[in-house]
Amino acid sequence: LSSFFPQAHVYTLDNDLLTTEQRQFYEDNGYLLIKNLVSDEDIERFRKEFMRICRREVKPPGIMIMKNESLRSQFGQSENVVNKVQDFQEDEELFRYCTLPEV
Fold this sequence. Notes:
By secondary structure, the protein is of the alpha+beta class. 35% of the residues lie in helices and 9% in strands. InterPro entries: PhyH (IPR047128), Phytyl_CoA_dOase-like (IPR008775). One of its GO terms (molecular function) is phytanoyl-CoA dioxygenase activity.
């Protein structure tokens, strides 16, 4: 039967923003990279805030910083060992990313 009916998209809705190929890539891989979607200025602001969080200059309530400890011998305690920051909704600057119309 699957040869008669195309694979349904499970994680994306029909829209005018993404191509069929982009939707399929997201369906297959769980992410989609769209270059230059966010301005260089915003990216720099988000990078600076990420660095402040990694250096613990700011500690938004509830934020969780995930590290890859196997990289510690190579990078020490730098931001290079951080592989995920989650629960950042209390950090106004990082959360601003989620509210960008482009996103």
